[in-house]
Specification:
Layout lengths: L4 H13 L2 E2 L10 E5 L7 E5 L1 H22 L4 H39 L6
Antiparallel strand pairs: 1-3, 2-3
């Protein structure tokens, strides 16, 4: 079965959510079914086809097993430390991204203010 990266991502999102409204999700031919919500007939929902669920299993199960083998090498204390480092690293990256966005915005504002206006 051939599937592109975008379809695989959407299939994963639907799998994670269980179902999504069709209005919030572009249709993915052959991988999703669309039905009317039993509790709200105005709402349509999409769900994975059996072949899409099998595809997800074949793609992601080996990744999960490989990740578990890596994590199994660490003690509970080591995993706690790793989680702490990753969370702190994420906070640093988010703060720096905000700083960079702020400096670019400030730079653009200064550049516009410093540009002489030509009157016609």
């Amino acid at each position: 079965m051939r599937v592109n990266r975008t379809d695989l991502r959407i299939i994963g999102l639907v799998h994670q959510a269980g179902s999504l409204s069709a209005g919030k999700l572009a249709s993915v031919a052959g991988h999703l079914t669309r039905t009317t919500d039993a509790s709200d007939r105005r709402r349509a929902v999409v769900a994975l086809t059996e072949s899409a669920a099998d595809l997800l299993e074949s793609v992601y199960a080996p990744v999960a097993r490989a990740g578990r083998r890596v994590l199994d090498r660490y003690s509970s204390g080591e995993l706690t430390l790793i989680i702490d480092v990753l969370r702190r690293g994420e906070q640093v990256q988010l703060a720096e991204a905000d700083r960079i966005r702020g400096s670019v915005t400030a730079h653009n504002s200064l550049s516009r203010a410093a540009t002489p206006r030509v009157r016609s």
